[in-house]
Amino acid sequence: MIDKSKPIPLYYQVQEMIIKLIEDGSYSINNPLPSEKELIKQFGVSRTTIRQAVDNLVNLGYLERRRGVGTFVAKREKKHYWELETLRSFSEEFEKKGYEVSTKLLSIEKQNTPAELFSVFKEIDEVFKIERLRFLNNRPAILVTTYVPVNIASDLDKYDLSNVSLFEILRTKYNVKIAYGKKEFRAQLVSAEDAKLLEMDENQAIQLVKTESYDNNGKIVDYSISRDIGDLSVYKVTLNYQD
């Protein structure tokens, strides 16, 4: 309920309560929002407060105004949550959450280690460069470029990485076990080429995620650069307080 004794603005309290009603199904997608008069009665606040809350929810994409009809609950894409406490493959991460996961292998080729990756691969001269487009529930979600040292998986290009996890291949075919990883996050605008593959507008933001994976001996196993659709992927981490 609305608590007028709290320092939290009333419009924000109303806004959060409407979001909860949308998320629990009380306000259904594509159904009209209760009238302004009904909302005033329901929440016990002024017309100005209701209008500010509704305006914010329209801007956030929870509601949409239809000219001549009214305000409706909008259909929103489901967020894809990555748990950062454990390093998992894309398939492992999302299949356990009930998503339909699929992959399109765009290319795989053996090449000399790019100069910009010398600091990562150090003495390793050759790598496989793998380009994949990952889908969640049949929608493009992540475009990822992965580099794997040739010396740990010499014939990796014979496997169809559109149907099997790279981590699984490394583990079962080459006895390479990933022990830990490092991630770096950055926001940037999507490139024209990536926008086409991800079915995005060119002026939209993506999350650029760089991941280094290592075995128990501290040797690099793979290095990936993923471009995640910015409004779909959410990263969650639990932190322990250290005094």
UniProtKB/TrEMBL annotation:
<dbReference type="Pfam" id="PF07702">
    <property type="entry name" value="UTRA"/>
</dbReference>
<dbReference type="GO" id="GO:0003700">
    <property type="term" value="F:DNA-binding transcription factor activity"/>
</dbReference>
<dbReference type="InterPro" id="IPR028978">
    <property type="entry name" value="Chorismate_lyase_/UTRA_dom_sf"/>
</dbReference>
<dbReference type="GO" id="GO:0045892">
    <property type="term" value="P:negative regulation of DNA-templated transcription"/>
</dbReference>
<dbReference type="InterPro" id="IPR036388">
    <property type="entry name" value="WH-like_DNA-bd_sf"/>
</dbReference>
<dbReference type="InterPro" id="IPR000524">
    <property type="entry name" value="Tscrpt_reg_HTH_GntR"/>
</dbReference>
<keyword id="KW-0805">Transcription regulation</keyword>
<keyword id="KW-0238">DNA-binding</keyword>
<protein>
    <submittedName>
        <fullName>GntR family transcriptional regulator</fullName>
    </submittedName>
</protein>
<dbReference type="Pfam" id="PF00392">
    <property type="entry name" value="GntR"/>
</dbReference>
<dbReference type="GO" id="GO:0003677">
    <property type="term" value="F:DNA binding"/>
</dbReference>
<feature type="domain" description="HTH gntR-type">
    <location>
        <begin position="8"/>
        <end position="76"/>
    </location>
</feature>
<keyword id="KW-0804">Transcription</keyword>
<dbReference type="InterPro" id="IPR036390">
    <property type="entry name" value="WH_DNA-bd_sf"/>
</dbReference>
<dbReference type="InterPro" id="IPR011663">
    <property type="entry name" value="UTRA"/>
</dbReference>
<dbReference type="InterPro" id="IPR050679">
    <property type="entry name" value="Bact_HTH_transcr_reg"/>
</dbReference>
